[in-house]
Amino acid sequence: MDIASKQGGPRYLQLADKLRQAIEDGTLTPATPFPTELELCREYGVSRFTVREALRCLQEERLISRRRGSGTVVEPPHVQASPTFQSLTSLDEMRQYARDSRSALVPMGEKVLPGTIARQIGPHGKTDRKWAFLHGVRSAGGGQDRPVAAIDCYIRADLAHLVPQLDLTSLALFSQLEALGDLKIGRVVQHISAVPASAPMAKALQIPRRRPCLRILRIYHDSEGRPFEITNTYHPGEAFSYSMVIDPE
């Protein structure tokens, strides 16, 4: 079932259309094994690059998820329909996160880490040195301007000079800092907690003050174990869902 090279647009979009149809008509379901990249290459007569681009499109549409060690799976209907679904289990998935949303971070000068964050990162947080501070809002995208998250971001002082070079419409700042700052990501620590919306967060999210929110604190460490980016994201409780798959060993 080769895909035409000159008709119907780029091959990866044609392949994405065929796989999307298979998901919609029930040929591919969460309960059935999803074809491997090699199987798709053979069946449709395309390159592995074409397959990966097609799968990326479906992943952005939340029709599938791709997990290391588990392969590709079709997401259940409630995940496909969720506008703010997150399933972040790897750096690759974090890089894909919110590609179809819009974010706008604004540099706000320098700031000492708040005590609550400093305590989370241990000895590296016990310093008076100021970090570059950015603040912004993520909106739903797709023609919607409704805010779905308020964001506070801190960048280590020795990397602050890179801020003017960053694409501040992307939430994947850590990838940009990795490339521009000549550093390597060691690990990411994530803390999720429920908090009441403060006055600034309530204003940014257009919700009543003290409305329950989910706070996600992500601490990005370099290969030497030093935090280089800290991102605090606040989601209104009703606009957030989180899912992960745990496979048996």
Topology:
Layout: H1 11-24, H2 37-44, H3 48-60, E1 64-67, E2 71-74, H4 77-80, E3 85-86, H5 91-96, E4 102-111, H6 115-120, E5 131-141, E6 144-155, H7 173-180, E7 185-196, H8 199-205, E8 212-222, E9 227-236, E10 241-242
Parallel strand pairs: 3-10
Antiparallel strand pairs: 1-2, 4-5, 5-6, 6-9, 7-8, 8-9
Question: What's a quick, concise take on this entry?
Answer:
It contains eight helices and ten strands.
- Order of neighbouring strands in the sheet with most strands: 4-5-6-9-8-7
- For the record, the count of structural domains works out to 2
Sequence stretches where pLDDT stays below 50 over 5 or more residues? 82-88, 94-100
- CATH homology group of the largest domain: Chorismate lyase-like
Question: N-to-C terminal Cα separation, in Å?
Answer: 36 Å
Alpha plus pi helix count: 8
Give the helix level as a range of percent. 25-40%
- The CATH architecture of the largest domain is 3-Layer(aba) Sandwich
Description:
With 249 residues, this protein is of the alpha+beta class. It folds into two domains: 71 residues, Arc Repressor Mutant, subunit A; 147 residues, Chorismate lyase-like (Chorismate lyase, 3-Layer(aba) Sandwich). The chain is 27% helix and 31% strand. The chain contains eight helices and ten strands. It has a six-stranded antiparallel beta sheet. It has a two-stranded antiparallel sheet with strand order 1-2. It has a two-stranded parallel ribbon with strand order 3-10. About 6% of the residues have low confidence.
